[in-house]
Amino acid sequence: MNDLSGAAGVSVTTKLGGYRWRVCAMLLAATTINYIDRQVLGVLAPFLQQNFGWSELDYSYIVTAFQAAYAIGLLGTGAIIDRFGTRIGYALAIGVWSFAAMAHSLAVGVVSFAAARFALGLGESGNFPAAIKAVAEWFPQRERALAAGIFNAGSNIGAIVAPALVPIIASRLGWQAAFLFTGVLSATWVTVWLITYRTPDKQPKLSAAERDYIGREPSAPSVRIPWSRLLRHRQAWALAAAKFITDPIWWFFLFWLPKFLHSEYGLTLLGLGAPLIAIFLLADVGSVAGGWVAGRLIRRGWSVNRARKGTMLLCALLVVPVVFAAKASHLWVAVALIGLATAAHQGWSANVYTMASDMFPRHAVASVVGIGGFAGAVGGMLISTAIGLLLQFTGSYLPVFFMAGSAYLIALAVVHGLVPRLEPALLETSSIIAGAAE
């Protein structure tokens, strides 16, 4: 009986193995570093604006430079990763963005800050296409939303680490030092990634049981699928629309929240830490919860379409109350409303990213995510300029929070109109392969 009970007590996870979750941990670490680098400017914005005498439009131009480069980078990043593989492509991306982040320490004005942000945007454009491709390589469909939610939580961890450490570093060592401290982290990550990352079919440490569990699609040659071919499909437009409409809201949260809290509640550089940490802690919970809910519904027998869109609807509804944050009477009421919205955004985002692997084969995923990221960056450029103009001439954040509260319901309606059943795109793979062979 003891032997039998002991055998029964061996969990499925123990028999199966969990190497794929080690890969997910690496993606989480990379995304965390990505957002630390990205968020340093936002945390320091009130101080830098006073120090350099920037207007609201000056700051919006600096932010727009990052988003313009991010969009330009995504024109080719996804295709490069699809062609050369996740391992090399990801390492190059994090190397570029880390050097660019440190280059901010040499900036002396609007133009040089904008140049550093532009370089940062080029490098960071590789993060999500590479991470989503790695998830598609390493996880079965029912786990992809959870894996995407976990690594996407790195955006919130980075957004938590930045306000926790950047004000302390800047106040003691100068603002330049705040842009330098991620260099060692980045170098360590790249080294470990290059040593350890392989696709499941080439990873000797992966158990046979886990390899079978992950499953493999029929192997496809590593060829570039032109965007023009992908954009023939409504599925690609659905992902692009979701990102175009809702990504700008996340950019607003990242780059303008410290300025909003400073202007509306008089917070100092050191005083920004606790509210920003609370907001992005809530976002972290939402990122994982959004992926977990969709996966749970699928395991309960819901179709992928119903589970994905049901979770996205819940997230969209949870963002709506953020419209009241602009006129909240107390700091922590505003923090709670914004934190709920960031949590809902991240739950939404985990499912939007997973839509790419729901609707496209693995060899096209990075390119499709690149299309979505490009659309989101273009939307971010537009809203950055709009916010700069609004604040320059009205000084009110109310219109921006109104846009934030309504964006997700609009985006879901567009997505459902384009892909009512979330059906897979029927790519003409044979003709692509034949063209590559010629």
UniProtKB/TrEMBL annotation:
Main localization category = membrane
Q: Which GO terms describe its cellular component?
A: membrane
User: Where is this protein found?
Assistant: Membrane
Molecular function GO labels: hexuronate transmembrane transporter activity
Q: Which CDD domains match?
A: MFS_ExuT_GudP_like
Alphabetical UniProt keywords: Membrane, Transmembrane, Transmembrane helix
Listed InterPro entries? MFS, MFS_dom, MFS_Na/Anion_cotransporter, MFS_trans_sf
PROSITE patterns, alphabetized: MFS
Q: Which family does it belong to?
A: Belongs to the major facilitator superfamily. Phthalate permease family.
The record's PANTHER family line, in alphabetical order, gives:
HEXURONATE TRANSPORTER, SOLUTE CARRIER FAMILY 17
Name of this protein: MFS transporter
The organism named in the record is Dyella monticola
